[in-house]
Every structure is written in structure tokens, then in C-alpha cells.
């Protein structure tokens, strides 16, 4: 009989993008004359503990003493933290609802701010394990409960030993206390979460590095909001491209490589290509780039790309023939809109289609040669698999048809194989 899976998730810099005590300090010490020095000391204490260079208990005690915080400050912090939930956790809220009995938040942080932040994600209060503050009658935070094992060095290990959970346990976190669970043998695998911060001392010891929660769900074959983790999508940038272009694509979560030339080792794995003005892609490389989905050209692509071949291969091209300075961001944004929503608006070789995001659905992209009867075949496949179509869009030009279908969340996985087998199919992709 298969063991039940239990997911043990850290809070600071994992479920949220920030370290909550650091943020609380910025609120509580806002008017303190030595605030910058104190902020730095608290941040240093946090990092020393996360890297395993200072005991967690000593780090926590020193940080709480430096805070000078109150319950009113906590209310401000909670409001702030709700806006700082890690993007990949936020978009996968449906996972937490479906697996509510399998998810534990285990943190060296404090329940007073963790519970109100994670509860909207259907995480049960009884599954939240964290420290608690000690306050005075007028609401000042003066200490914490030292009897809680999570306030001690190795606290997560001690807690999990006490809980003695049955099943396959998986840990997700960014710090040394998370790795200690793996070191102790209490969990099956430790996933170093690096969406917000990457600590080499932790990454080097992890069973798997997960740059997003999408990646964790993907490798464990669990339901997720997007079909393929963005960190696995290779975006190659060639030539003299403005830093803001790189940052825009990197911030969205794609795996970025910035090179002087289109090196052969990247040809078969590249999904996105952003080219500086004057850069060329040789026809033989283009033919081998079977995973390539979109090209952004920061100049006139006409004499530097085989546009006909791009169209035949289902590669969407965006260009900036007039060298508009604003297009350092405009062209990458068009690429992002295509990768995230399927939008081809202002493409130079594809039918122009603008698409709204539709909630609680999967978006399927089918690129095919523009011959009669393809849409009938696509919809016949949907009918055979009893698929409920939420929305459907089709645009064509002389060469190709570009069909987008939004379907409900339940589907037979053989559906995708059937759609790919339709004659004259060029490319098929599940967006989310």
C-alpha cells in the first residue's frame, strides 16, 4: 500500500518572499535613531542562523530583544506579508485546498503572523507549527515561549520526532533548519527552495533544488497552475541587449543565459531567443531548434532570420524595425505575453491574437498548417474525450492556423497525444 505523502513547508523566504522578523524590525524601529545599524544586525543574525553558523536559539533570542515591537506592529506586518506571498505558492492555491490534510507549515517564525497569512490558502490552523510571542498587558512583545521546541537549535527535528508522523515526508525550505530534517533521516527528501534566496551551503546539500513551487509539484507529478515550470524554460539572449530586457525576463522566472553568440550546445534546448540588432540565426541552427517557441528581435529581423522557416516551425517572431528605445522592454513583454497567455499581438509572422486569462481552466495551443477541416478534427478529439470547452479562439493567415482552446480542469491525459497526432499539426503546447 502506498504511503501517504506529507509536505513540510517553511515560512520565511519560502512561503513568503521575505524574512518576517526582518520586516517587523523595519516597522517597529521606523523612528529609532539607530535603526539602520539595528536592521543590519537583525539581518546578519538571520543569515548566520540560516547558514548554520549560529545556533537558531541564540539568533532568535537576540533578534526578539532588538525588535522593540508591539501587537500594533504585528498588525502592520501581517498586512505587509499578505502581499509578499511567494508567487509560485500564490498561483498554486488550489493545491493547498486539495491537499489540506497533507500540508504542514513548520517554522521558527511566530504563529501570530504566520497563521493569518497562510490560512487563506486553506492551510489548517492545527497544521501550523511555529513559535509564540510573550507580551505585556499593554501589548508590548518582550519575549517568546522558550518551552516550544521550535525556539531551540534543531527545533524542527525535535518537533518532528515528537509528532512521529506516518508516511513519506518531504521538506521544502531555504535554510539550515530545513536541511537538518533531511540530515536527521526524518524526511524522505529535502528540496532547497531558491525562488527568493539561494544559500550555497544549503543548495549543495539538497536532494533537489526547486527554484519555484511549480518545480516541486512538477517533479512529484502533482497538480499545478502552470504545465511546465518556468525555471525549466531556457531563454537565450544574444549580443548587446539592455540590462532591463534581461531583468524583465529573469524576474518572470525563466532560466536566462546571456551569450555573445548562439552557441551550438544551446540549439536543441532553447525555448526563447532574444537577439540584439544585427545578430543572425543561421538556417541550419534554426532547423535544429525544435523546442524554440518565440524570438524577439531588437531591430529589423528581415535579413537576419528566415521568417518563412520560423512560421513553418511554429515560432512566433516579434521585432523592432524602427529601433524604438522603449522596445528594450516592449519586445520582451510581447515574448512574455506569448509564453504566459498565448498572445501573438504584433507578431510579424503569426496571426495576431489577444487573449484574456480564464480562471480555473487549462489553455491549449495548437499550431497547424492552414488547411480546411483542422478545427473540426480538434473539436472531434475534444468530444471523444468528453472535454468541456470553456472558450475557443482561432486566427489564420495564408500559411498557418493558430487555435487556442480553454478547457475545464478535468481531462484525460491521452487527450494531448490525440491532439498532437492530428495531421498538419506543427506545434502543440499546454500553457497552464
UniProtKB/TrEMBL annotation:
Pathway annotation from the record: Amino-acid biosynthesis; L-serine biosynthesis; L-serine from 3-phospho-D-glycerate: step 3/3
Cellular compartments per GO CC: cytoplasm
UniProt xrefs under CDD domains: ACT_3PGDH
GO terms of molecular function: L-phosphoserine phosphatase activity; magnesium ion binding; NAD binding; oxidoreductase activity, acting on the CH-OH group of donors, NAD or NADP as acceptor
ACT domain mapped to chain residues: 363-432
Domain of life: Bacteria
Pfam families on file: 2-Hacid_dh, ACT_AHAS_ss, HAD
UniProt keyword list: Amino-acid biosynthesis, Hydrolase, Magnesium, Metal-binding, Serine biosynthesis
Catalysed conversion reaction: (R)-2-hydroxyglutarate + NAD(+) = 2-oxoglutarate + NADH + H(+); O-phospho-D-serine + H2O = D-serine + phosphate; O-phospho-L-serine + H2O = L-serine + phosphate
NCBIfam families to which the protein is assigned, alphabetical: HAD-SF-IB (TIGR01488)
Its biological purpose: Catalyzes the reversible oxidation of 3-phospho-D-glycerate to 3-phosphonooxypyruvate, the first step of the phosphorylated L-serine biosynthesis pathway. Also catalyzes the reversible oxidation of 2-hydroxyglutarate to 2-oxoglutarate.
Name of the molecule in the record: D-3-phosphoglycerate dehydrogenase
